[in-house]
Amino acid sequence: MRNPGGRRNEILKAALECFLARGFEGTTVAAIRARSGASTGSIYHVFPSKDAIAAALYLEILKQYQGELLRELQRHHTAKEGIEALVRFHLEWSQEHADETRFLVVAREASQVVAAETNIVEQNRKFFGEVLEWLQPHIRQGAVEAMPFALFFSVILGPAQELLREWLAGRTKVDMRAAIPILAAAAWRAVEKRPAPPPK
């Protein structure tokens, strides 16, 4: 008997390939069926619609990325190591999973994915909560500047995310391997708490 989880993964893998090649509107359940080798009935047994496939795919990729990032972050016990590792992981994972990353970028505003907003918000809430749990002791110990959490992520990942978008679009020839340590070090400098300057 076929593993239902295996069938689901086959459908999602085929859907990713179809969505990237054809776009959301150009992709049909028939195209996903043909690429996955699944029967129409087995697809509808797992997913009620093409929109449900797109939403499930987005959540699945997001869950994989966030889970692996958290495991990497929790390996590091100093603020500097952890923040540099976070940036490094973000860029390395995105290169190794370029199709998945491209889908996350282009699909976030798609109506098919926006329909799953409640689930996305809940998944992000758990993820950011765990990152904040790792970060707070470093703020209390005076290693990291206190700032709104949304600003923290923008500061440390903003430059890396911008370079990544350019790389995914083929608009930059920057060597990403060489850029990673530079961006990781810059992220740490941006949030490192420095002693207050002496009064003049």
Please describe the structure with a list of short key phrases separated by commas or semicolons.
DNA-binding; mainly alpha; 10 helices; Tet_transcr_reg_TetR-rel_C_sf; Tetracycline Repressor, domain 2; 200 residues; Arc Repressor Mutant, subunit A
General description of the model:
With 200 residues, this protein is mainly alpha-helical. The chain folds into two domains: 1-47, Arc Repressor Mutant, subunit A (Orthogonal Bundle), CATH 1.10.10.60; 61-191, Orthogonal Bundle (Tetracycline Repressor, domain 2), CATH 1.10.357.10. Helix content is 77%, strand content 0%. It has helices at 4-26, 29-36, 40-46, 50-73, 79-96, 98-107, 111-114, 117-140, 149-168, 176-191. The longest helix is centred in the N-terminal third of the chain and has 24 residues, at 50-73. The chain starts with a helix and ends in a 9-residue tail after the last helix. This is TetR/AcrR family transcriptional regulator. It comes from Archangium minus.
Q: Could you tell me the radius of gyration in angstroms?
A: 20 Å
Tell me about the biggest sheet?
Answer: none
The helix/strand class is mainly alpha
Straight-line distance between termini: 77 Å
Taking all residues together, what is the mean pLDDT? 93
Number of helical elements: 10
- Which topology of the largest domain does CATH recognise? Tetracycline Repressor, domain 2
How many discrete domains? 2
CATH superfamily of the largest domain: Tetracycline Repressor, domain 2
What share of the residues lie within helices? over 70%
Give the overall shape.
elongated
The CATH architecture designation of the largest domain is Orthogonal Bundle
What share of the residues does DSSP label as strand, in percent? under 5%
CATH class of the largest domain: Mainly Alpha
The succession of helices and strands, N to C, reads HHHHHHHHHH
Domain HTH tetR-type: 5-65
Keywords: DNA-binding
Organism: Archangium minus
Protein name: TetR/AcrR family transcriptional regulator
